[in-house]
Design brief:
Layout: H1 8-31, H2 36-78, H3 84-97, H4 99-135, H5 155-167
């Protein structure tokens, strides 16, 4: 897919969403943080884009996407899963994507997290037990809970889900 076949507004949208998602992926992987210098301007540029390109209906849809995404991740953050940067990231992406595409990105990223967690747990089941027993270390704590903790930088699955949406030219749909 090339930008040459897009209209100007679609090319700006594509670059804004792709840039925000990609930079967030790399900063979250390297520093385990999604910085404000990325999310705040990302949100404001998305809002400006919606005002200029789509007018009132675009602003409403963008604010709904931002609000729905941020609310869902805020609940996750309050329960101890994820961080505040994740909430800000999905709020910033939501203003660009709108409500439906934000829900699609959240659904797809949740699928990626589930698969990643399953692969990690299977891998660790075999490697941690073997390594710990070879080193004489306890595999579990006193309650029998495994000592290994999985930490996935949330911007990575969100970035992958966003790129799937972008490469599908915004036509990614949930099978409902």
């Amino acid at each position: 897919m090339t930008i040459t076949g897009m209209g100007l507004a679609h090319a700006i949208w594509f670059c804004g969403v792709a840039g925000l998602a990609t930079v967030a992926m790399f900063t979250d992987m390297s520093a385990r943080k999604i910085p404000n210098w990325l999310t705040v301007p990302g949100f404001l540029l998305g809002l400006c884009f919606q005002i200029v390109a789509n007018g009132g209906p675009g602003v409403v849809d963008g604010m709904m996407g931002s609000g729905i995404g941020a609310f869902l991740l805020l609940l996750m953050w309050l329960c101890g899963g994820g961080g505040g940067g994740d909430v800000k990231l999905i709020g910033s992406l939501g203003i660009w994507l709108g409500a439906w595409q934000t829900i699609c990105v959240l659904t797809c990223s949740t699928f990626f997290i589930a698969i990643s967690t399953l692969v990690f747990l299977i891998y660790k089941q075999f490697t941690v037990r073997r390594t710990a027993s070879l080193n004489g270390l306890p595999v579990t704590n006193r309650r029998g809970i495994p000592r290994v903790r999985l930490v996935i930088p949330y911007a990575v699955p969100v970035g992958f889900a966003t790129w799937i949406l972008l490469l599908g030219n915004g036509r990614f749909q949930l099978p409902l």
